[in-house]
Amino acid sequence: MSFNDHVETAEEIRIRHEDTLCTNESKLVSSLWWYNLKYTLVGIIFGIVFVKAEIISWFRIQEMFQLTSFFMYGVIGTAVVVGAISVFTVKKLGLKSIYGETITFEDKKLNKGQIYGALIFGIGWAITGACPGPLFAQLGSGFTVVIVTIISAITGTWIYGKFREKLPH
Amino acid sequence: MLEFIKQPWHWAVSGTLIGLIVPLLLILGNKKFGISSSFRHICAACFPGDIKFFKYDWKKEVWNWFFVGGIVIGGFIAANFLSNPGELIQVAPETVETLKGYGIKDFTSLLPADLFNWGNLFTLKGLIFFVIGGLLIGFGTRYAGGCTSGHSIMGLANLQKASLVATIFFMAGGFISANILIPLIFKLIQ
């Protein structure tokens, strides 16, 4: 059984890569759906870290922006350094995925969205005390009302898509 | 072992584990770490309307939903099985004072329970902290082309200039929000 036999057009690939860093580059996606369960496992580990690291804490986010604690800077800073060393290593050694696919990287062009959009997100980040990842962990950790925030975020994304052509980029 | 996990984690441990998600996703299937994209794929799958931005093969990106679904489960496991009940959360004393001044009384869980509860949904608090906050996150992350995961971790790790600019303005927005807007919001809702 194949989940998706659709062959993407060049235009579809272009749109899928638009305004995002996080895209699937694998050619093997028409494989069985349960292959994706390994990402659920990574997500579970990540969700646990989010809660234990208190990154989902509204209070920690206020601290960070009120400059009263080093904690969040320590978490994000360490993550960036570890991530950068990892990416460097993957590139340097030309590592392949477990399916033998070459790991690819894409450069992103700077546009005005990284100023206006980022400011708008930053404002929302401090209000909700969460960026998108922690929203899902807040929900799981028992703050069920956060589902409303997630639905609102989906709506916000839709509004962006609707008015995308009219916005400065 | 379990007792060891149950205590709050040092920032360096948490940061290292988060950083390691980047190579883990790359090696498992050439996937780029990011989360806000999941919102867009839901739009593309459920209500693309006639919007070009949502006309792509979202089935190519379902792995991202499996990933965020895992985050929800992980949040549940950590909160219910890997925490010490009753243990107070840690907040800088200066911030506690500031927030008490805003009228926040509950410092017992990771989110102020006096703010983040269903009872507030149809109030001005709910409108601002859930609905408007969520809209800003969804609109802003997509406009910026990523969130803290995509830009600040994956993008910075890959030395992208666009991600550095985005991260600087994420922080700028947060500083404006936490120090100017949030005090005003609390004045408004009290």
Oligomer: heterodimer
- Tell me the Rg of chain B in angstroms: 19 Å
Task: Report the count of strand segments of chain B.
Answer: 0
Structural class of chain B: mainly alpha
Topology order of chain A in helix (H) and strand (E) letters: HHHHHHH
What is the ordering of alpha helices and beta strands of chain B?
HHHHHHHH
Task: Name the beta content range of chain B.
Answer: under 5%
Q: Unreliable stretches of chain A, pLDDT < 50, 5 or more residues?
A: none
Structure description:
The complex is a heterodimer of chains A (169) and B (190). Chain A is mainly alpha-helical and 169 residues long. Chain A is built from 7 helices and no strands. Chain A is globular, with a radius of gyration of 19 Å. Chain B contains 8 helices and no strands. Chain B has helices at residues 2-6, 11-29, 37-46, 63-81, 93-102, 124-144, 148-157, 161-189. In chain B, helix 7 packs antiparallel against helix 8 (161-189). Chain B starts with a helix and ends with a helix. The model of chain B has no long low-confidence stretch (mean pLDDT 94). At the A-B interface, helix 1, helix 2, helix 3, helix 4 and helix 5 of A face helix 2, helix 3, helix 4, helix 5 and helix 6 of B.
